[in-house]
Amino acid sequence: MKPLYIFPLLYALFITGITDGVSAALVFIPGVGIALALVFTCSINITMGSGLILLLVKNGMYHPTWGPAGTIAAFIPGLDFLPFWLGIVITGIVQDMKKEGGVLGTVASVATLASSPSIKNATSTMGKINTMQHDIMPRPANNNQPSYVQQAA
C-alpha cells in the first residue's frame, strides 16, 4: 500500500468521526439541538469534504462513477452520518491500484468484478489472468537458438 493511500483514508475517517461526534453532542441540547446538528454537520461535510475531493482529483484517484454519487449522498442532511467519505476514498484507491497493474491491479480488477457481476466482466478478467499464464510457459524449441536445458545422457 502506498503512503499516499493512508492520508486520504485518515482524512475521510476524521471527517466521518467529527461529523458524527458533533451531531451526537448537539442532539442532546433541548429544543434546537437537532437543527444545530444538521447545520454543523452539513457545513463540516461541505468544507472538509470538498478538500478531500480536491485531494482525490489532484492525485487521479477520484472514481468517475462512485465519486459523484457518494459526494451527493454525503451532502444530504440526515444521511451524512454514514461513512460515504470512506467509500469514496476506498473506491478511488481501488481504481488507482487497477491503473497500476501488477498483482494489486489484478486484485483490484477482481474486486471491481465482484461489485458488478456479468458475463462480459468475467470473460475480460479471465482473459487477463490467462495472458499471465503465457508469461511463465516455456518457449517452443527453435533451431536457431541454443537450448540451455541439460540433456539426458
Q: Your description of this structure?
A:
This protein is mainly alpha-helical and 153 residues long. It has 2 domains: 3-93; 101-132. Helices cover 71% and strands 0% of the residues. It has 6 helices and no strands. α1 (3-26) runs antiparallel to α2 (33-58). The chain is rod-shaped and about 95 Å long. 20% of the residues are buried.
Could you name the key traits of this structure?
0% strand; 153 residues; mainly alpha; single chain
Total domain count: 2
Average pLDDT, all residues: 76
Number of helices: 6
E-strand count = 0
* N to C succession of SSEs: HHHHHH
Summarize, please:
This protein has 153 residues and is mostly helical.
